[in-house]
Specification:
The model is unreliable at about 1-10 and about 20 (pLDDT under 50). This protein has one domain (about 25-145). The protein has helices at about 25-40, 40-55, 60-65, 75-80, 85-95, 130-140, 145, and strands at about 110-120, 120-130. It is mainly alpha-helical.
């Protein structure tokens, strides 16, 4: 699978501002956000992919793939191969060793998550960016409004 650690939260995955009101009002706003994001999933996915590719156009990984700044779904499918963790491990190891150049992401790596299992006796490192933490917090905040329905 093509792995990108830099998914934009700015346009596609940022919840609308929620006024400081009763919990049910907040739930309504979050449910509206979920509805908006899921009413035309294909368009949202295409926009998110274009944002990811545009932000990361100058990364070493996408340069090696020959994407040359293209942001469309067809170009991505044609040029970015399905890969394994082992294919990316040398790049991930460079990042873990302190290389700050834009290897897999144009944004600085803020932390490494580790897999719960092991591969050949070692956990897998997953570089992430601050935006990813923000996105996870947003997704967790959407759980309760759904469960409260």
């Amino acid at each position: 699978m093509a792995v990108m650690t830099d998914m934009p939260a700015a346009t596609a995955l940022r919840a609308p501002p929620v006024p400081a009101a009763a919990g049910s009002d907040k739930d309504v706003e979050k449910l509206r956000f979920i509805e908006e994001m899921t009413s035309d999933v294909d368009a949202v996915q295409e926009r998110v992919l274009a944002e990811i590719l545009a932000r990361n156009a100058r990364t070493e990984y996408l340069a090696r793939c020959g994407l040359a700044g293209a942001t469309g779904r067809d170009a991505f499918r044609a040029r970015v191969p399905v890969v394994t963790y082992e294919d990316l491990q040398p790049d991930i190891q460079r990042i873990a060793n302190g290389d700050r150049s834009p290897i897999l992401s144009a944004h600085p790596i803020s932390e490494f998550l580790t897999s719960s299992g092991t591969s050949a006796g070692e956990r897998k490192l997953m570089p992430t960016i601050k935006e990813e933490l923000d996105r996870r917090q947003l997704l967790y905040s959407l759980l309760m409004p759904v469960m409260n329905q």
